Fold this protein.
Amino acid sequence: MKMHKEEKAKVLAKANGPIIITGKFVFEDEDGSTQDAERIVLCRCGESGKMPFCDASHNRVGFISR
Ligand code: FES
């Protein structure tokens, strides 16, 4: 039987944009509900209309991450 390398999730802080998480992980929302996920895009500008997810509002507000 061939062994698979352990897969690790990757967290990418996009310049002037969201945090993108890819890989296999469990997402737990603020209400405690959980779901298996492989990609999620989280807002870090604070202006999204669908928190905690990015809705591209960072472009409209000119979010600068540094
Ligand atoms: S980072 Fe995209 S809406 Fe906030």
About this structure: The CA atoms of residues 45 and 58 lie 6 Å apart. The radius of gyration is 15 Å.
